[in-house]
Every structure is written in structure tokens, then in C-alpha cells.
Design a protein that fits this description.
Two copies of one chain form a homodimer.
Chain A: E1 8-12, H1 16-27, E2 31-35, H2 39-57, H3 71-75, E3 78-81, H4 84-88, E4 93-96, H5 102-115, E5 121-124, H6 135-138, E6 144-149, E7 158-162, H7 169-181, E8 185-187, H8 198-214, H9 220-231, H10 237-244, H11 246-260, H12 263-277
Parallel strand pairs in A: 1-2, 1-4, 2-3, 4-5, 5-6, 7-8
Antiparallel strand pairs in A: 6-7
Helix pairs in contact in A: 1-2, 8-12, 11-12
Chain lengths: 310, 310
């Protein structure tokens, strides 16, 4: 199979990431199915697409050779469905963004395996799990590869394409070319690794940030001020976590805490869990470490604010 | 003692950091002594000051109430000396940037302790050591506090002021006010912590970056491309290490590898050590992970460069 033979793409899981990936594929003229078990998630996805399109997607990174399309025109290429049969039918490539649980991912792909043509490529957008954790369960391990997005609608956009030990080597090439065809800059880790390249570093940085607050070395705001002031960035680690969603951060923490039975990871789980229990999971609920839509880290004098001395 | 009573400041260690701190203090009208055991280091410091001044220091972050001074005028307030007696005489505050070795720092302050007035405040610019590791050796633990700089000549500039268990609490306030008087935004960790706030996170990120290369997951360039492309930053972790100096990174790695007898840290030591042995310690020798003055990560298409697929 060649990348140019990929015509119909199914995105499984209609959360923030799935919605963005579906929109980017449709924008690049693929026929897209966005599949989710929940009708309300699909409805939410449409809202997310409208919001993102107007916030930063609009018109950017389009081929100059093609006429700019409106969001409505692009959306005609996306079918929203709760039917897995419809999602599987005649599909060339599936990318899943369902919750970070290897069992769930394995089961989902096992169902797709029975319904999809033999040619269908299975890809996972997992952030820190390994494809090998659920490759056998999919029923077609040689056609499973990670295709992981960061900000698919933005430019530049980086995507990771990562094989596991049993992935057909040709598939890596096909999926990387597909990723490039939807305007992603491709990074191919040379071996299977939790967090690929970037998430491996980001995870270490976020863990260190949480430890500083848990250990009482600094407050959330002081940690972010330090990072923003020295790195000259518009966000610090806690603002980044609000953006990712604390429910997602929690799920990742929890998985690795249990997998490694690591006390440091358990501690971070508890820390993030307290925010989640209060319903403060980040931007999407209007409150996480910061309060939205006008979080304090966006104040002009946030970085320069003098510490309470003495 | 009040911050405004600080008039004469001694900077011990005339490396890149010491030179910048001395220049920033002189620019803010303090009387400065730059002390080093090596004449050639002092000569090098003058060159560094000229270079930095023209590169980014010139005119920035000056009080608008004061007339802009030329570098030559500012330099009249800096005495360059190899005499510790001269450095100690009538000194209000010492900040040391000597190599990252607690024994060396303790011995240096012990010598100053015998020569300085009782009022002299001892501050360390260590990046990851703890003041408590050499506080007793100084002979005046209650007057020792960390005052740690990042980019002292830039704006914004962040500085950490950190006590150890025996530091006089009033001293934290005095040193923080002094730091503000030389245009630093102050972060005060609530307890003693290796790496303060920012360096704790940076260290975790840099360690993760090295592990990716050591484990063969990605190349130096791929790691930096991922970070730069996703964080929208002009430098990735390896470029940052070239900037810090691989000799300094090595010394920090080595200290903690031995202190914790941590095999992961020993591995990173070996990795960085190979560069150092070849004399490739970063920007200052024209070669580190990248070749200077035109490192490849500054190429327009560095991030977008397509991975070698297949």
C-alpha cells in the first residue's frame, strides 16, 4: 500500500485531539469519519471544530494551489457517527484518540479488526503508552503503528510516527508520508519509547514542576513565573497542564504509577486528583490551576510580580 | 543591615556568569571587585563583557532617570584582581561563581571569612548544589544565602534567593532587595532545594533529552527539532547545553552521579564527557553538539527538515 492510496480516514474518539485531527484530515481533502460511542461527544466535537477554526485554524497552512474553503465546505467531508460498522467500512487508516488505557485501545482495535478491510492501517495517538502494550490484542500487530499529533491544525505541526517490534517496516514509511500529506513535520523515533521524543521531555519537566509544588518549594504561580521569565514563553508548566486537561494528565500519571508502582508518581496522582475531584480539569471547564477565560498568568505583570519578601 | 547599605560587591570567579553579574552590578552603580585566581580568566572576563555588552546588554534595562553610560564608564567601577585581600576589603556582599564543587566553595568562603568585615554577606550562585553543603565550612553559616542568576543582563531577568536552615531570615529579605536593585525579578524558594525552581525543571528536561540520545531513540538534532517545533522556541535542549557549556553540564552531572551513585547519571556523565574530552564544550570553543558561529539549528528549515523515511 502506498500513502497516496489512502482516501478514507477514520478518527476514533471525538475529544479535543480527535476533533482536531479529523478537521485537519478533512481540510486536506480526505474523506473522514469521526467515530465515538457518545452522541454528545460528537456534538461537542462540532463545537470544538468551530471554536478552533476561528481561533487559529482558519486559512493557515492551506496549499496555495487550492482555493480556501470555508469550514462548512470542509465539514461536508466529515461524517460524525456512533456506528463502528460505518466507521470501519472501506477505511484505509484509523487513528484512535480514546482514553489512555491499553486495554480499551486493544479492545477497540479488536472490534475494528473484524469489521475493517485487510488493508486498513491501525494507528494510535497515545501520548505515553507503547503500541506493543496492545499490539497483539488488535489482531493485526504488523499493521499497527503510532501516529501521534501535537497541534495538528497549527503550523509548524510536529507528528511522531513510531513502530513497535512487530510493525511492518514499510508501514512506517506509508504513515509518515500520510502525516506529511496533512502538513505534519514527521519525527520517527528509532525505537519504541514512552512519550516518543517530545512528550518524554515534556513529561519529565511537568513531573519536576509538580514535585516543586508538592514538596512545598514553590507555588503553582511561582513555578510558572520562573519558567515563563527564563524561557521567554507565554505559558508555564501548570498552564500547559490546564491546556492538556488535568483529567488526561491524571490518567497518564495513574497508569504509570500503577505500572511502575512508583511512589513519586502516586504522589503526583493524588495532587492532580484533588483538582479533578473538584471538577477543575483545566480550560475546558473554565478552571484548573488557573481560572479561565482570563487566567492570571496572562496578566502583563505576572512574571515581574515581586515575591512576598520577608 | 539594610539592602541600601550595600555599596561594594565582590564577584568571585571570572567565568561567563561571574563576568555578567559583575557587569550588571557595575551598571547599576555598585562598586565592584571581580576576583579570580587566574590573570587570564580576568583578561577573558573583560572580553566577555565587551562581547555581551554589544550583543545584548547595551542600553537595555537602564533606569530612564539615569543618563546612559558607555561600557568604558561602567568599567571604571569594576576592579579586576587576583588578590583576595583586595576582594575582601570593606566588602558588603560576595557572590561566588567558582566551579560547582562544595569543597571548593567552602574553602573559598573560609578564606574570605578571615579577611572580610563581620557585616559581609556571603552568597553563592551555584546552579544545583545546596548552600547547606558548605555552610559550616564558610565560618558564618547564618550569613550565607544563595543568590542565583540566569541571564542577569537581560530583561526580564529572574534570580533565585534561597536560604538554608541556618540562614538569618532577615538576610533573605536584604539579598532579595539587593537583587531587585540590580533589576532582577526575585523568586524565593520556600525551602532549600537543588536547582531552586527553574533549574530543577530544566535539569529534568535536559536529563530526559540526553537519555533519548543515549538510548538511541533519537539524534541530537531530532530531539532539538521536536522541542523547537512544538514549544516554538529558538533553541532545543542540546543547543541550551552548548550555551551553558558542556564542561559545566559535565561537572553538575558528575557531582550528582557520585553523590547519589545513580547509574542513569553516570551514563549521562560519560555521554557529555566524550564531547568534553574532544574539547567540544559548546559555544565558547566553537563546537559542542553544534558547530558555531553558524549552528545548523539556526537554519531556516531546521525544524521542517523531513526525517529520513524508510
Amino acid at each position: 500500500m502506498q500513502a497516496k492510496e489512502i482516501k478514507k480516514v477514520t478518527i476514533a474518539g471525538a475529544g479535543t485531539m480527535g476533533s482536531q485531527i479529523a478537521l485537519q484530515c478533512a481540510r486536506k481533502r480526505f474523506t473522514v469519519v469521526l467515530y465515538d460511542v457518545s452522541e454528545s461527544s460528537l456534538a461537542g466535537a462540532k463545537q470544538v471544530m468551530h471554536h478552533l477554526w476561528h481561533a487559529f485554524g482558519k486559512g493557515k497552512s492551506q496549499d496555495s494551489s487550492q482555493a480556501l474553503e470555508s469550514l462548512d465546505e470542509i465539514l461536508t467531508r466529515i461524517k460524525f457517527t456512533t456506528s463502528i460498522e460505518e466507521a470501519a467500512e472501506d477505511c484505509d487508516l484509523i487513528n484512535e484518540s480514546v482514553p489512555e488505557d491499553p486495554k480499551l485501545k486493544g479492545e477497540l482495535f479488536a472490534r475494528f479488526n473484524k469489521l475493517c478491510p485487510a488493508r486498513t492501517i491501525f494507528t494510535t495517538n497515545t501520548s505515553t503508552l507503547l503500541p506493543s502494550m496492545f499490539a497483539e490484542e488488535t489482531g493485526r500487530p504488523e499493521r499497527l503503528v503510532a501516529l501521534h499529533f501535537h497541534k495538528p491544525l497549527m503550523s509548524p505541526a510536529i507528528a511522531d510516527v513510531m513502530a513497535h517490534a512487530k510493525t511492518d517496516k514499510e508501514l512506517v514509511k506509508v504513515v509518515a508520508e500520510f502525516a506529511e500529506s496533512i502538513d505534519q513535520i514527521v519525527i520517527i523515533p528509532h525505537k519504541e519509547n514512552s512519550g516518543y521524543v517530545f512528550n518524554h521531555m515534556l513529561g519529565a519537566m511537568l513531573d519536576a514542576a509538580m514535585d516543586l509544588v508538592i514538596d512545598g518549594v514553590a507555588t503553582v504561580e511561582e513555578v510558572d513565573r520562573s519558567w515563563m521569565g527564563i524561557m521567554l514563553m507565554p505559558q508555564g508548566p501548570f498552564a500547559i497542564m490546564d491546556h492538556i486537561g488535568l483529567d488526561t494528565v491524571y490518567k497518564i500519571c495513574q497508569f504509570w504509577a500503577e505500572a511502575e508502582n512508583n511512589p513519586l508518581r502516586h504522589r503526583r496522582c493524588e495532587f492532580i486528583g484533588e483538582y479533578c475531584q473538584r471538577g477543575h480539569v483545566g480550560i475546558k471547564t473554565g478552571q484548573g490551576f488557573y481560572k479561565y477565560p482570563q487566567p492570571s498568568f496572562q496578566d502583563t505583570n505576572f512574571v515581574a510580580k515581586t515575591a512576598a519578601i520577608g
